[in-house]
Write the C-alpha cells for this entry.
Amino acid sequence: MKIFVAGATGAIGHRLVPALVNTGHAVIGMTRSSNKTASLRAQGAEPVVADGLDSKAVMSAIQHAAPDVVVHELTAIPPRLNIRKFDHDFALTNRLRTEGTDNLLAAARAAGVRRFVAQSYAAWPYARQGGTVKTEEDPLDSDPPRALRETLAAIRHVESAVLGSGIESIVLRYGAFYGPGTSIGEGGSVPEDLRQRHFPVVGNGGGVWSFIHIDDAAQGTLAAIDRGSHGIYNIVDDDPAPVSEWLPQLAAAISAPPPHHVPALVGRLAIGESGIVMMTEIRGASNAKAKRELGWKLIWPSWREGFRKGLAEPHRSVA
C-alpha cells in the first residue's frame, strides 16, 4: 500500500517509516523541516515538506501523493515538560491535534483515502474512578485537573473527528513512550532528572502508568494499518504499574540513586494538581483488544525488561 505518514521524523515516525518500508509499503513522509528530508530518503521514504497547520500545503501534499492510508503522528512536544504548565507546553501539539487533524482529514477525503490512523493517548486520560486498568470501552476523565483540560480536549477532538470522518479510521491510544528518541531514553530529560534526584515519588505513588517502547508502538501502528478495524486500540505493554514500583526500577536501570519520597502536600508545591494526579490517581490501560485483533506481538512485553535493556539505540534497529 501507499502510506502517507504525517510527522514522519518524530519519535514514533522515525521508527515507523523504516518498519513500513521493510514490509513492502511505499511511504511518503511529511515533515515541516527541509533539513530532515535526507534522513527520510535514507530510510526509503519519499519526503514532502509541509506544515500540518497549513491547510493548503497539506491538501496539496496528500492529493499529490494519492495514498491508500494516512497516518497522523503530528506532535510538537518539548524535550522537557513543566507539569504545572502542561497545557502551555502542549499548546502547539494541541493545535496539531485540532487544526492539524482537521486539515489532514479534509485532504484525505478529497484524495479518496480509504483508511486514516491517528495518534491518541492512554497514559493519563482515562477516568480516575473504578478499576486501575481500563479498556477502550471505559470513559475518559470528565473532570481533569485545570492544567490538563486543553490537552484532554484536544485528544477528544482527534478521536471524535477521526472516528466520525466517514473514512475507515483507527485511533491508537499509546502508552507513555520510552526508548531511543523519547524523554525516557538515553539522553532524555527523565533519566537526567532521576540522576539529579529531581524526580521523587510523591504521596503514595499509587498512580498506575502504562508504558510502551517506541519500537513496540511502531509495530503496533504497523499492525493497525494492515489489520485494524474502525475504532480505538490501546497500544500499551502488558504491565501497568504504579509510580511507586516503576520509578525506583527505572532509577536502578540507569544506575541513578533511588528517588526521594515526598508527601503529597510538599509535592503539590513543585508539580501542582496535575502532577499529584499523575503520581497518585491515574489509571493504566489494557492491550488485550490490540493483541487479540491485530495479532500484535510485543518486543518488550514489560517495561521491567525494557527499562533494563531497551532505553538506548540498539546496534541494529528491531523495527
